[in-house]
Amino acid sequence: MSASFTLRPAVESDFPSIRALIWRARINPTGLDWRRFTVAVSGSGVIGCGQLKPVPGGLTELASLAVEPAFRRQGVARALLEHLLDGSPRPLYLTCRSGLGGFYEKFGFVAVAPDDLPPYYRRLQRLAGLLMVLAGRGETLLVMKLD
């Protein structure tokens, strides 16, 4: 079954749904500004979201890509990602759990070696790595880049 949805820029009233989705997806809840988000919307409301956000060092990050569990594997994440990539600045970075690297590789992202990380991502990777070990997740934080 394929989801029927549309993509649009978020509006302020979408913010509670965006924040709730980010928390349910257990991804980084910092830096959420509804004005940077694109949302996927169906009859049930916001079913997916993603944003392009500025990060230290003058860089841009693809972030907060999340889809409601009932709508996964139906092209929602792909549509959001393709929309966000269209016209986005390069290089474009993202962080994700190591198990998701293969998905992003399909769009041209490549893993960045630890020695090649910009300072912001080097600090983030060290901190997240510690937290993931403490949480017993068995995954690492992967930093990827699209030139």
Care to give the gist of this entry?
The chain has two domains: 1-88, 3-Layer(aba) Sandwich (Aminopeptidase), CATH 3.40.630; 90-147, no CATH class. It contains four helices and seven strands; from the N terminus they run βαβββαβαβαβ. The chain has helices spanning 15-25, 76-85, 101-105, 119-135; strands spanning 6-9, 37-42, 45-55, 59-67, 92-97, 110-111, 141-146.
CATH fold category name of the largest domain:
Aminopeptidase
The portion of residues assigned to helices is 25-40%
- How would you sum up the major sheet? 7 strands, mixed
Write down the oligomeric state. single chain
Reading off the top of the CATH hierarchy, the class of the largest domain is best stated as Alpha Beta
Q: Given the helix and strand composition, which structural class is it?
A: alpha+beta
Count of DSSP strands: 7
N to C succession of SSEs: EHEEEHEHEHE
Count of all domains:
2
**How much is the average pLDDT?**
91
Kindly describe this structure.
The chain is of the alpha+beta class and 147 residues long. It folds into two domains: 1-88, Gcn5-related N-acetyltransferase (GNAT) (Aminopeptidase, 3-Layer(aba) Sandwich), CATH 3.40.630.30; 90-147, no CATH class. The protein is 29% helix and 30% strand. It contains four helices and seven strands, in the order βαβββαβαβαβ. It has a seven-stranded mixed β-sheet with strand order 1-2-3-4-5-7-6, sandwiched between helices. The longest helix has 17 residues, at 119-135. The radius of gyration is 15 Å and the shape is globular. It starts with 5 loop residues before the first strand and ends with a strand.
